[in-house]
Amino acid sequence: MTLSEMMNIGLMQGFAGLSLFAVLLLMGLGLAIIFGQMGVINMAHGEFMTIGAYTIYLSSVAVGKLAPNFMPYYFPFAILLGFAIAFAAGWFVEWALIRHLYKRPLDTLLATWGVSLAIQQAFRTFIGPKEVSPTLPDWLLGSWAPSPGLDIPINGLFVLGLTAVVTGAVLLALSKSRWGLRVRATVSNRVMANATGIDTKKTDRLTFAIGCGIAGIAGAAFTTIGSTGPTSGSLYIVDAFLVVTFGGAASLLGTVVSAFGIAQTQSISEFFMAGSMAKMLTLSLIVVILMMRPQGLFASKVRR
Amino acid sequence: MNALTDMMKRYQLGSVLVLTILLAVVMPLALDIFRLNLVGKYLTYAFVAIGLVMLWGYGGVLSLGQGVFFGLGGYAMAMFLKLEASDPETTKIQSTPGIPDFMDWNQLTALPAFWVPFKSLPFSLIAVVAVPMLLAFIISYAMFKRRVGGVYFAIITQAVALILTVLIIGQQGYTGGVNGMTDLKTMLGWDTRTDSAKYILYYVCVALLIGSILLCTWIQKSKAGTLLLAMRDKEDRVRFSGYDVANFRIFTFCLSAGLAGIGGALFSLQVGFMSPSFVGIVPSIEMVIFAAVGGRMSLVGAVYGTLLINFGKTYFSETFPDAWLFLMAGLFIAVVLAFPDGLAGVWQRHVAPRLAFGRGSNKGSTKVSTEVPAEVSTSPVV
Amino acid sequence: MAIKRDPSNLDASRRRLIQGAAALPVIGASGMAFGQPTASVNTTKLAITDTEVTVGQLHSSTGTMAISETGSIQAEQLAIDEINAMGGILGRKIKVIKEDGASDWPTFAEKSKKLLINDRCAAVFGCWTSASRKAVLPVFEKENGLLYYPTFYEGLEQSKNVFYTGQEATQQILYSLDWAQKEKKAKTFFLIGSDYIWPRTSMKIARKHIENFQKGKVVGEEYYPLGSTNFGSLMNKIKVQKPDCIFTAVVGGSNVAFYKALKAAGITGDKQLLVTLSVTEDEMTGVGGENFQGFYSSMKYFQTLDNENNKKFVAAFKAKYGKDAVIGDVTQAGYLGPWLWKAAVERAKSFDVDKVVAASPGIELKNAPEGYVKLDENHHLWSKSRIAIGMPDATFKVVSESPQLIKPDPFPKGYQ
């Protein structure tokens, strides 16, 4: 192994860690908004991601049949469509179910589990039980080789870029937009916010829907990595929760930091030991740290 | 006579009696041995459900990782049974005879050290209860002493369930991996697969279950039970009154873990294998569903809830596989939204008053608090 | 390595089949029932009437294995329909009870109990992963049931109650390793698999063969949980080790993520030799031809096999399941199951499991889509092994075929 080869491996492994970081962050972002700002535990978060993934798949099937020439371009549109459909589904679920349960967080956990079962079965009944993969446009496949021996996966770059855009947009919206203002007001002091005329119910609904929409984008991004089936959501849900809880539920910065920490720990240890041992090591570290500091890395400074 | 009826009312023995008759008399008469064995399997889940009634209904602590304790107890028993089924004579075609088959095909050449004590039945029986309780103690001590509760605790129990699943599956050589431990045949020479053995195991299971219900009822009626309810509703007040909230919660968590462990061991005996698919998050949440549907405040209700959902799963999933999952999801959402006390609550509030039995509101929930409170989110103190 | 030649084959059983089939319309036309009285063909209280015999089908139609098992379900059903169209077995039509194992081994065990104890099936066609087979094996042995198991597997098993219609390890693994060494001069191998019994046991055998018989070297051995999608670090480990050949047994849905990851890491067929034991046409529908092209798969059957039997089989399959249907190795092996059972039952003139098992050794199928196969007395099939390269359109092109039928040897000496 020459020095340049070792450096290449180091860079590629670092990139693998960054890739995993992007995946975890994208998964956790939607959940952090919902959990952190509203205290609602959405166990159906994984299913909203799968909604986004299936949207990409169905779009690719439709485009393939109706407008094959459009194939190289459909992907970004399909992502937006995934956001829209997941957003709408989240809006509906909040209106139908969640708004009755705000005072009972443990019950929202259970009720949203019921929702996730229903959505999974809906996938099975209306789309089919087998795992599916969309036809990805050529520019997303393969690797980019800036120098010989250094192969950076293009789908990793894509997910990284998408995550940066989405995270930036969310942070910007939370700090600069009127919606962000309303959300922050509601989180700080719900009663006062109501008193000042903010419709906290509408704000909650919008926030939940946006969180689900982001989950949809995450699911859409993951179709570049693996296949999609009715139960794909359950692969992601616990990791997403751990990222959010570890970072500190009320802090988006915490989510970013925790996603980074978890991703690097896992991918570095994966390089040196078996995959499942690495996962167990990472999980155990998280649990131990959480037991010592239950409020997560970045605790909210306001008593809720 | 008065003292007897008073005691029966106080300890709700009436409903326990009905349950006992149903399980011990009606079911064996009405069902063939194949279906009775299935009922026995469902009853092992009921152990977890009654543990959850104590932990969640009374203690206000939701654990989404009870599968861990079910699995630990189940694996402890399975390890003993597997060692018995792997004597050198039966395994002579292996590279290394005398060790379980999965160790052989994972290229192990000797029994790992931590397996050796499980050759003895007394040790294994103790381990069935002790190991889950020990783990529960460690987790709950770390959490409750720091006043972590509510949602955070639930998520951490999920993480623990995931860790144990990954550990079991990843260490195939030591645990059998994703296959689990199969082909468990005899216990001390007694063949557990014959019909007569299945009957005996069923009755043992029923006896232990009823015993556990009586034990929990006694705890509920004692001062500890009242304190648990008080802690669930108004934790700080109880703390200011001088009680150590954490200790009571630790006790309840360990109790529920021990019960789950017993359930797991009975599962290994009756079904003949144990696998990590009973340890993870999905089965753990399913067990919560059993308790929720049956009535999280009612021990007897939890048993009925378990039986009902499992019967539904087996029968409806064959005839209407698509509709069944929608039905279960809908049932679950309905229970959470509209019937927080589950079936027991429905019985107690709507059916029992209309039955002029004179037993009044005896069936189901306790008299102390029948309402599931609007939960105060016990987030950790910052 | 012992590769035995197939003995001079007799056309006897085929003639008997044709005679029987030719006789059926005549007898049917004359209005007489062909079947013998139920009491004489069924002495163990199986679900058999004068006109019907019940069999079970136990596969995963949901879960991570559904992508692989759907083909087996379809093929077994096709075989049963064809048999029924010919008049059934011993004059009885076959009725199928389908159960879903849901990719969950405890469910497989429970459903197998139902099929044997409750439904009294005369035979069960089912299972795919070795985990599911191991979970149901105790039930079949205790209840004396009959299982036709279609998947290529690791061997080291020979149950009286199971017939293995897929290749066992020595037929599939040893042939492909020898091919890699001889044709592609591979000396170093990186072994990758999913984390359960079949890949672990297969790689144990592969390692012994590489190290002891081929004098090669194993530079890496990694296992990933079923359903896992996280292969980034593995790609880098492969790049560090630079093996001559990647030898993989990744199963089910994980295949999709694995081959996408390979492509994304720049590891493609033109630069790296990869031989897999677990990608058939079924998995290709999920993986995609563009991700697998240039890699090799080791099976005994490929849809593009060029013989008369296969052309008829593919046409019949597509006619029933649509022109986009694909047929993999396990699907074809599933197709063989009902035919082998039928032949054994007719030879035994009974449905009793003990009699069928006793009548099975030596049964031949000359019209199997893969070519001539024979049932050995160790309940496995003599068959040829083939290596094929993946094409961009998701089909396979056969590049090598074993010259003779390979004798099945589930307990190979020197590999334990």
Q: What this model shows, in words?
A:
The complex is a heterotrimer of chains A (304), B (382) and C (416). By secondary structure, chain A is an all-alpha fold. Chain A has one domain. Chain A has eleven helices and two strands. Chain A has helices at 3-38, 45-66, 74-96, 105-126, 154-176, 178-188, 190-195, 200-222, 233-247, 252-272, 275-292, and strands at residues 143-147, 150-153. Chain A has a two-stranded antiparallel ribbon with strand order 1-2. Chain A is globular, with a radius of gyration of 20 Å. The termini of chain A are far apart. Chain B has 382 residues and is mainly α. Chain B is 68% helix and 1% strand. Chain B has a two-stranded antiparallel ribbon with strand order 1-2. In chain B, a hairpin with a 2-residue loop joins β1 (186-187) and β2. Chain C has two domains: 8-167 and 311-382, Rossmann fold, CATH 3.40.50.2300; 169-299 and 385-401, 3-Layer(aba) Sandwich (Rossmann fold), CATH 3.40.50. Helix content of chain C is 42%, strand content 17%. Chain C contains 14 helices and 15 strands. In chain C, the strands form three sheets. In chain C, strands 7-6-8-9-10-14-15 form a seven-stranded mixed beta sheet, with helices on both faces. The two termini of chain C are 15 Å apart. Mean pLDDT of chain C is 85; it is low at 1-13 and 17-34. Chains in contact: A-B, A-C, B-C. At the A-B interface, α4, α9 and α11 of A face α6, α7, α13 and α15 of B.
